[in-house]
Design brief:
This protein is 76% helix and 0% strand. The protein has 205 residues and is mostly helical.
């Protein structure tokens, strides 16, 4: 992991992991992003804005993670869109997916895409949202802006956790571990709110 983080290949690894974890949620995309951001916190260029050789650039890291997140969402969305009756039958057999489809459809129709952003932090929530939005044939202009905001929010949160964890605790495995606990904690909270079907924006309204 150390040799990967200190090479330019870290960006490709992050992009590939984030792109594919919509299909394979067990991929360690969050671990990669946080580990790379923690390593960036060790760079002496943090104060000057100049990133030394071998230290990941935070903006590039965030751009890679965000772009890959949106592309992965769109691939899943399009596959579900074309899935037709077979996918509709598969969803109808699952009460959880049927409920998620109804909630997501209603949320997107009224512009309440906060559910899409919230689900990005929940375990496998991104997968459910992308597939359900496609299967329900929601218009791409309803889904894409929220997918982009969700990807940017998740990437920014993950990078910030790794970077500030490294700043406060040093570029150590302890800093990475504490940052991961915070990421998983946010995921657990998001999963709870998604199950309730009441994201913060909906409660406020």
């Amino acid at each position: 992991m150390g040799s990967l983080v200190s090479s330019p290949w870290i960006y490709a690894a992050v992009a590939l992991s984030v792109l594919l974890d919509v299909f394979l949620p067990m991929l360690p995309s969050g671990v990669l992003v946080i580990t790379a951001a923690t390593a960036a916190a060790a760079g002496s260029g943090a104060a000057t804005g100049q990133v030394p050789d071998g230290v990941p650039d935070l903006l590039v890291l965030m751009l890679c993670a965000t772009t890959a997140s949106v592309l992965g969402d769109l691939v899943a969305y399009r596959l579900a869109w074309r899935g037709g009756a077979r996918l509709d039958r598969a969803i109808s057999r699952s009460r959880r997916l049927t409920t998620a489809q109804a909630r997501l459809g209603a949320a997107l129709a009224r512009g309440g895409g906060a559910l899409v952003v919230l689900a990005r932090f929940a375990p496998a929530g991104r997968s459910v949202v992308s597939f359900v939005a496609g299967a329900a044939h929601r218009r791409v202009r309803e889904f894409l802006p929220w997918s982009a905001l969700a990807g940017l929010s998740w990437a920014g949160y993950s990078v910030a956790l790794g970077y500030f964890g490294g700043q406060w605790l040093g570029a150590t495995w302890l800093a990475t571990g504490v940052s991961l606990v915070a990421l998983f904690g946010a995921g657990a909270g998001a999963a709870f709110l998604v199950r309730r079907g009441q994201p913060p924006a909906a409660e406020a309204s």
